[in-house]
Amino acid sequence: MDYLAGLNPQQRAAVENTQGPAMIVAGAGSGKTRVITYRVAHLIEKGVDAFNILVLTFTNKASKDMRERISKVVGTEAKNLWMGTFHSVFAKILRVEAEKIGYPSNFTIYDTDDSKSLIRSILREMQLDDKLYNANFVYNRISSAKNNLVSHVEYMKSAEIQAEDISNKRPLIGSIYETYTKRCFKAGAMDFDDLLFKTNVLLKDHPDVLNKYQQKFKYLMVDEYQDTNFSQYTIVKKLAAAYQNICVVGDDAQSIYGFRGANIQNILNFEKDYPDLKVYKLEQNYRSTQNIVDVANSIIANNKNQLEKNVFSENESGDKIKVSRAFTDNEEGKIVAESIVQERTSKGLNYSDFAILYRTNAQSRAMEEGLRKLNIPYKIFGGLSFYQRKEIKDLIAYFRLTFNPSDEEAIKRVINYPKRGLGDTTVDKIIVAADQHNITMWQVVCEPQTYIAGRIANQLNDFSMLIKSFQAESKKLDAYETALYIAQHSGILKELHTDDSIEGRSRYENIQELLNGIKEFAEREDIEDRSLAIFMQDIALLTNDDRQDDKERDTVSMMTIHSAKGLEFKNVFVVGLEENLFPSQMSLNSRTDLEEERRLFYVAITRAEKKLTLTYATSRYRWGTLTNCEPSRFISEISARFLELEVIKAPKTTSSSDSFDGERRSWSQQRDSFSKPKPASTGSATQTAPPRPKTSTMLPTAHIPTPGFAPDAASAFQNGMEVEHEKFGFGKIINLEGTLPDVKATVFFQGLGNKQLLLKFAKLRIVK
What are phi and psi for residue 645, nearest 5 degrees? Predict the structure, then answer.
């Protein structure tokens, strides 16, 4: 078969052996996706019904890419596969079986913001200190319990859990969990964790349902198995129990989501569940140079808890890995920016060939400053998702109410948007009435005269009639027509259209973009159900890793290492390699946590195809204080023969004990400085910033403002405008970013270069 011809022997064996339990240990860049897709295609070619194959992934993008590849081999039969993320597949099953566990089939899926909003409401009602009972903390505590299949009842009964909460001075977490669970149920809503938790409940309490899906899914494949948590592990094990045709694919060396509940033991101990397991190791890295692969191997070899494998590359040896030392984090940003310019110019590369990876989002500031000063375009991944923008969530809340009027969070979000005289006081009255009579908020809204005294009954009646009109129209119109009708008649389109500010226009355009997306969805021919309800389910299940394809823009990519998993770039900078930053200070208390940090470093290294640069600073601002930094232990774990060390010349005023002569010392000399224990400090952990070299002994001439100088409003400025600043003089706006009132402008001033200004404070005057 043609599709088998391009596989290496290990890949081919993994594809052709389809019976019984199998584990494919796939090293970085080893062609994992190709093996998964060809294995599924091979099953279908051998006569297995596509309807009997379940493929579980961690991102919608991964499942979409796989389905497209499979369709190239088997054609339209690929449409019949059950393939998608854990959450999307089991949401689909729960829609069918929901009534068995007491939920409506049109249940709402709460995203993280919805869940935290509900928790904040509960905290207010219980009159709890929101600093002690922080909504994020409570949410994460509940999420962790669900991922470990601990219900609110079991949570309250567990003496160990209760003792832990008491020791943390948060004894009421269990009560909050109970109230949260009951409120979600009353609202006909499930949060993200519920999609797996409730599936486990369904399969445990209803043997007939379990048998139904065991017979349906005769072949199971799970991608990125090292990232599964206990809840996911339990579902997969139950579904595979009848036929045991289960194949898991993953790399223990890339298990980096322990903080989300992922359990590396699921892949390390897989053989204990299936003693007759067949193991296939994909060890050839097709992505990176030999030097990069060897460095990655030398790092991960320091972990004790791992599956044995020998990853290798037959690509060219490639450049040695450069290690750059800077004196401050700002200087580190400058080094990276200058390196990008030099490498791009000398090798004819695009900006999109470069990525800057960091351990924490806060590190992006210094990198951004370095890039901006050299006018290097960049994009930060992991920012606000399109579907998390306020105007989008507002309109979607109307959609949600149309199909599930019991949705408490949707009611609270839009009952007074656009404004209709139903503010927070009214909402509080509705909540109290609903709790007192054990009914939903929607029932109170529909019969306000019965439950709420006062003059607001008419407004509530109008609101309920509005939602009922949406429900009626949705039964007659397709997804796009329904969405447009709701956007128009809710008042959202009018509200945004009359807002002439930059932010208002942007929000209006975002609504139009959402409607365009629904239009495209409504015209798709590859899905049977093109209703607005299904569109809403699809967007509710988007994961953080489902990024828009940004390849058409030539920009440097900046992101945390967690966000970079699964991506690859020709040139990669891993920055901030310092103790207590990477590895994180929080990871230094246990071997388990430290080994996960090392796996995270391994992931960062293996994103690079051609060139890898590691950087660190000897001082960095933390919480407003400049602190000394020492190089990460991970640098000292790399064999010297793979490295090229670059030391930046220090200012002449630095003391001789800390200075360098500007030449590169031998790696062994510098490596000693990493490895030797530092003498105990006799003073403070902070120090004064090292003096900067003086660039000029003359002060710039002070600017005299134009007589009658009057600054313009922040909303008036546009790219390309010539402006005047009281102090900096005349300049030109070369970039605007952000939304009002927090728009930032990059302005080029004559004789001063680029300066970044927050427009609401900048006091700029438009010249022309």
Answer: -100, 130
